[in-house]
Design goal:
Blueprint lengths: L23 H8 L5 E2 L11 H11 L11 H11 L6 E4 L1 H13 L5 E6 L4 H8 L3 E6 L8 H6 L5 E7 L11 H8 L8 E4 L3 H4 L8 H6 L4 E6 L12 E4 L2 H10 L7 H10 L3 H24 L3 E2 L7 E4 L5 H10 L2 E2 L1 E2 L8 E4 L4 H16 L1
Parallel strand pairs: 1-11, 3-4, 3-5, 5-6, 6-7
Antiparallel strand pairs: 2-8, 7-8, 9-10, 10-13, 12-13
Helix pairs in contact: 2-11, 3-11, 4-5, 12-14
């Protein structure tokens, strides 16, 4: 018997599921290759914070207990780390959950979610899944958020605004003065979500804004961050946001009970003390980003200036999907960007030195071939 189920929101019918970077295991099953290198998902090539791993191993012995549903210890640690009251902190199953909850709370049918494109595709998926509409403003010619055009697009139907800074997948940033000018144009009652998943990679840049400063000054901004990138805890799914207390209370009402597991909370608490690992990650990333950029530019390609742990590489007229497929044949996973409206590009996360050497060798071989 065939049946037809109708989703509550028609937009769900037309959604494409979120697709992450191709898993290593999947490629291994398909190609039976001796070595596979994954440079697709903006993961930390040095692994996870050692302090976080030690805490996680200890926490595994207590998994027969439910986790702390209020995230008390993690919030307390974040409060000291960020310099804001714990009542302004919410914790999520990855930062994705917080983005989803913001959409669930504030976006109703007919309401608009506003952002620039291309950016993190979850903004679009969450809005359409909850019956909202999306307004996507093109990036400027430098692939940066055009905050001036974004402000002009605000209407009475705007219910939620997203800015990814630094932006995924372009790696570009907007400056502190640009963000301040933009916030002055946001109507009262419209939450402004500043997604800072890659904050730690850009915090050394003088003109790069720290969203926490805006929050301390009283701006109605929702600053979202994650433990997945700099701390290497992508597999544990833990993120957080600093928000006005009113929004924090709303999020706590609708999030799932025990949404962040016990092991993840323990690892995140310990990771915040591992500044040595953070600095080691930043040093490795800075050196290898520069090395890869110089090498690919030597091949006649171009790279968008990036303040993250990934590079958007323009393939000089070549098809990104084709280059991606050819790299797969060599056991190297990168990210094709056609789904983001950038069919002539690939996104690459620097790996270990030896992995980057193999990627550059394979890419040059493909270009010459």
């Amino acid at each position: 018997m065939s049946m037809r189920f109708r989703p509550a929101h028609p937009g769900i019918d037309n959604l494409m599921p979120y697709s992450g970077g191709k898993p290593i295991g999947e490629l291994a099953r398909e190609k039976n290759l001796p070595r596979i290198i994954k440079l697709a998902s903006n993961e930390n090539p040095l692994g996870a914070s050692p302090k976080a791993l030690e805490a996680a191993r200890k926490a595994v012995e207590e998994v027969h207990r439910y986790p702390d549903g209020a995230h008390w210890e993690l919030k307390e640690k974040l409060s000291h780390h960020l310099g804001i009251p714990r009542e302004m902190i919410v914790v999520g199953n990855g930062s994705n959950e917080i983005l989803e909850l913001m959409t669930q709370i504030f976006l109703s049918e007919g309401g608009h979610s506003l952002y620039a494109w291309p950016t993190f595709v979850v903004y679009r998926l969450a809005a359409l899944a909850h019956g909202g509409e999306v307004v996507e403003i093109p990036m400027d010619e430098s692939l940066r958020f055009d905050l001036g055009r974004l402000a002009e697009a605000i209407t009475q139907r705007t219910r939620l605004i997203f800015v990814s800074n630094p932006n995924n997948p372009t790696g570009t940033i907007v400056t502190s003065s640009e963000v301040r000018t933009f916030m002055e144009k946001i109507p009262e009652g419209v939450p402004f979500v500043l997604d800072e998943a890659y904050f730690e990679f850009a915090r050394h840049v003088p003109e790069f804004p720290d969203g926490m400063d805006f929050l301390r000054e009283g701006w109605p901004v929702v600053v979202v961050r994650t433990f997945s990138k700099i701390y290497g805890l992508a597999g544990l799914r833990v993120g957080y946001a600093a928000v006005p207390e009113e929004i924090a209370r709303l999020i706590e009402k609708v999030r799932q009970p025990f949404n962040v597991n016990h092991v993840s909370q323990a690892a995140a608490i310990a990771a915040l003390d591992d500044e040595e690992f953070v600095e080691r990650t930043l040093t490795h990333n800075r050196v290898e980003m520069a090395r890869i950029q110089e090498a690919v530019e030597g091949m006649g390609l171009s790279v968008t200036p990036s303040f993250t742990n990934f590079l958007l590489i323009d393939l000089a007229g070549r098809d990104g999907q084709d280059v991606y497929n050819r790299l797969l044949e060599k056991g190297i996973i990168v990210r094709p960007m056609a789904a983001y409206g950038l069919p002539g590009t690939i996104r690459v996360t620097p790996g270990l030195v030896s992995e980057n050497d193999l990627f550059l060798e394979a890419l040059e071989d493909i270009l010459e071939g």
